[in-house]
Amino acid sequence: MSVLPPALLASVLGTLPADVRPGTAPLTHLVSPDSTRPYVTLTFAQSIDAKIAGAGGKQLILSGEESMKMTHWMRTMHDGILIGIGTAMNDNPQLNVRHLPFPVQNTHFQHYHHPRPLILDPHLRLSPTCKLVINAAKSAGVAPWVISARPPKIDGFFANEDDGERLQQWEARRDVLQAAGVTVILVEPETIHPDLPPVTLNLPLPAVLRTLREKGIRSIMVEGGARVIQSFLSTASGRLVDALIVTTAPVLVGRDGIGYGDGLGQVSGTRYLTTELLGRDTVVGLKFAQ
Ligand SMILES: NC(=O)C1=CN([C@@H]2O[C@H](COP(=O)(O)OP(=O)(O)OC[C@H]3O[C@@H](n4cnc5c(N)ncnc54)[C@H](O)[C@@H]3O)[C@@H](O)[C@H]2O)C=CC1
Ligand SMILES: Nc1nc(O)c(N)c(N[C@@H]2O[C@H](COP(=O)(O)O)[C@@H](O)[C@H]2O)n1
C-alpha cells in the first residue's frame, strides 16, 4: 500500500517539507493571490456523463479505492473542507481521512491533520445528531463550523408577519447546534435594498470566504455538492477557485442523475496541469489563471 500522496497532488498543490510526515499538516504554502480569502481547491468525483449523484440525489461511490485515497490525502492538505447543506443532509458525511494508511503510533485522528468541516447552511438545517457532530463530541473528528445568515427582520413596507417567527425558529436551531458543539458563523446575506428580503437564498461566497480567512482558515477544499460546485465555478462571483481536481469514474449514470453543469455560466481561465490514472479512474488537475 502506498504511504505517499499520488504525484498529481504534488504537481497541483505541492508537498510538505521533507522533514514533515505526509498527511500530518496542511500545506501552508497554499496562499490565495487574493489575500482576503483562503486558497480554494474545488474537487469532486463524476461519472463519464458528468453526474455526481444518482437519481433523486442518491449518493454514489464513484471513486475507486485509489482515487478515494487521493481525496483523503487532499483533505489533509487543507485547513478546511467545505460542503453545502444539501450534501450534509443527503450524505451525512464524515469528511475525515480514514482511508489513509493506519499509523503505527497514535490513532488515525491524532496522527493525521483533519480539515475543519465547513457547511454552507443559510437556514441552519444541519442535524445536531449528524456524524460530523457526533464524531467531534467523541473527540474523533474536528468540530464543524456552520456558515449561516440571520433571517432578516424587515421593518419596512415589505414586512411579513412570518418574519418574526422565522427568526425565532432560526435562533432556536442555532442554540441547539451550538449546544451540540457546532460553531455558527454569520455572514450578511445579499440585499438589493435594506427594506427588501435577500435576493438569493444562497450565501454570498465572497463574504463567506472573507469571513473564513478572517477566522484563520488559509486554505479550503470544496467538495460539493452540485449547487455549491456550480456557485464556485460561476464567473458571476468573480474568480474564487485556484485549483480544480476532478476524478472521472468509468461509469454512466444516465439522465436522472445529478449534474453540476446545467445553468453553469461560461468558465474561463483554466490552465491544464496534469492527468493521473488511479486504478480505473482518471484524475485531472487544473489551475485557474489569476
Ligand atoms: N460525487 C461527488 O464528488 C459529490 C457528490 N455530492 C452529491 O451532491 C448532492 C447534493 O448537491 P446539492 O443538493 O446541490 O446540495 P449542495 O451540497 O450543493 O448544497 C446546496 C445548498 O447549500 C446552500 N448554499 C448556501 N450558499 C450557497 C451558495 N453560494 N451556492 C450554493 N449553495 C449554497 C443552499 O441552502 C443550497 O440549497 C448529493 O446527492 C451528494 O451525494 C456531493 C459532494 C461531492
Ligand atoms: N471523492 C469522492 N468520490 C466519491 O465517489 C464521492 N461520492 C465523494 N463524495 C464526497 O465525499 C463525502 C463523503 O465523505 P465521507 O466518506 O463521509 O468522509 C460526500 O458527502 C461528498 O462530499 N467524493
UniProtKB/TrEMBL annotation:
Biological process according to GO: riboflavin biosynthetic process
Family, per entry: Belongs to the HTP reductase family.
Protein name in UniProt: 2,5-diamino-6-ribosylamino-4(3H)-pyrimidinone 5'-phosphate reductase
Chemical reaction(s) catalysed: 2,5-diamino-6-(1-D-ribitylamino)pyrimidin-4(3H)-one 5'-phosphate + NAD(+) = 2,5-diamino-6-(1-D-ribosylamino)pyrimidin-4(3H)-one 5'-phosphate + NADH + H(+); 2,5-diamino-6-(1-D-ribitylamino)pyrimidin-4(3H)-one 5'-phosphate + NADP(+) = 2,5-diamino-6-(1-D-ribosylamino)pyrimidin-4(3H)-one 5'-phosphate + NADPH + H(+)
Origin: domain of life: Eukaryota
Pathway: Cofactor biosynthesis; riboflavin biosynthesis
Record bears the keyword Ligase: no
Molecular function, one GO term: 5-amino-6-(5-phosphoribosylamino)uracil reductase activity
A Pfam family: RibD_C
Listed EC numbers: 1.1.1.302
Enzyme class of the recorded protein, top EC level: oxidoreductase
All copies of domain Bacterial bifunctional deaminase-reductase C-terminal, residue ranges: 38-271
Keywords: NADP, Oxidoreductase, Riboflavin biosynthesis
Function recorded in the entry: Catalyzes an early step in riboflavin biosynthesis, the NADPH-dependent reduction of the ribose side chain of 2,5-diamino-6-ribosylamino-4(3H)-pyrimidinone 5'-phosphate, yielding 2,5-diamino-6-ribitylamino-4(3H)-pyrimidinone 5'-phosphate.
